[in-house]
Amino acid sequence: MRIGYACQTMGIPGTDFKSCILRNADETNLKNIISHNLESLERILDYNISSGIKLFRITSDLIPFGSSPANKLEWWKLYEEKFNLLGDKIRQCNMRVSLHPGQYTVLNSPSEDVVKRAIEDLEYHNRILKALGMDKMNKLVLHIGGAYNDREEAIKRFICNFRNLGQHLKDRIVLENDEKIFRIEEVLGIGEKVSAPVIFDNLHNKINKSSEGYDEIKWINLCQTTWKQADGPQKMHYSDQNPNKKPGSHSDTIDGEIFKDFCQRLNREDIDIMLEVKDKNLSAVKCSNIVQSKPSVKLLEKEWSRYKYLVLEKSPKDYNHIRQLLKEKEEYHAVAFYKYLDHAMEQEVITGNGINGALHVWGYFKECSEEKEKISFEKKYSNYKAGKLSLNGLKKYLWQLSHKYEQEYLLNSYYFAEVM
């Protein structure tokens, strides 16, 4: 089982993606943005490899105006060497990648122009996977589209337009149920007719429920029959509902206990699970650790090294609970560990706790820093304490010192996630 996340990372420096507006999409600017984005993708892949994450969705924004006439660059040729390098990294660690064209890529539209642009967008997404040298197990995820006041005609139109696609696109596309229109049983029927694998999305199914009344495990197993050997292991999407937002909104983080229960009910290792969640890689690592087949407290200790000072500034009580958990070296309290962690992340920082965390981090520099740096820290510390400087203002200075003195432990910490 591979557990992954989509598009962006949280708390990892140098992994942002850039874009531009149409009037700035000249050749020079496009080249600069593409170069930047490919470097960011490489850093994400390196992070995934070091974290044991082997399932990842690449952002559709990798190449600005990738499916538009505004971008006339043959970027797949210009950056061939870089794409080859990235593709090698993906293959060498057995990572599986995908892309998910957006809501405007509608293959069943009654408008021929919309369908034409949808196919152009699919070609663009496929070209990324081709440039990386990815085989047919690396997919493009697609929704069926709109109902246009006639569901049956909309389905017929999708099937017709799908069958007219080039084989290279047919080999890439997998179909997904959505939260508003097409339910899982309809998507399964379409998938069977066009010989396309079907992805089950658990949250979409909870909101746009099937009329059959099956539980989600049965639907997942039914979807498995659409996946051929050449398509790779079955893949599904998993997410929790954000309780404070409209139906279909993804939660800030995955509930580890619920996820563990889901995996126990699923009782399968031959499936890849893509998490759709706001905290991205953080939940991917969490869920991987919770269902770890070879549990070791060292996995939780590695996590703790990243979260330690962030937890300290938010919730000293949770900080102490976690420290006690990790003292039990022969036990693997992953669910409890993440419960304390998640609870801490929900807390607002009060000034006293912010001071406590900052002083612990400053401890790395007390001996090695120059006198002027000590004076500067004391001034910023006093201003924060007096309410004249934000906590992020104080942390930015500590972040600069972490770079100057090459404090890798701190540079890898989520303590600085908001100021990088």
Major beta-sheet overview? 5 strands, parallel
What is the CATH topology descriptor of the largest domain?
TIM Barrel
Q: What is the CATH class designation of the largest domain?
A: Alpha Beta
How is the largest sheet built, in terms of strand order? 3-2-1-8-7
Order of helices and strands: EHEHHEHEHHEHEHHEHEHHHHHHHH
Brief synopsis:
The protein is an alpha/beta fold. The protein has 3 domains: 2-290, TIM Barrel, CATH 3.20.20; 297-345, no CATH class; 351-416, no CATH class. The protein has helices spanning 27-51, 75-78, 80-92, 112-131, 151-163, 167-170, 184-194, 202-207, 216-224, 256-266, 281-290, 297-314, 316-326, 334-345, 351-362, 371-385, 391-404, 408-411, and strands spanning 2-6, 55-57, 96-98, 140-143, 173-176, 198-199, 234-238, 271-275.
Q: How would you sum up this structure, described in words?
A:
Helix 7 links the parallel strand 5 (173-176) and strand 6. The longest helix has 25 residues, at 27-51. Helix 12 packs antiparallel against helix 13. The chain folds into three domains: 2-290, Divalent-metal-dependent TIM barrel enzymes (TIM Barrel), CATH 3.20.20; 297-345, no CATH class; 351-416, no CATH class. The model has no long low-confidence stretch (mean pLDDT 95). Helices cover 50% and strands 7% of the residues. It has 420 residues and is of the alpha/beta class. The strands form two sheets. The protein has a five-stranded parallel beta sheet. A three-stranded parallel beta sheet has the order 4-5-6. It has 18 helices and eight strands.
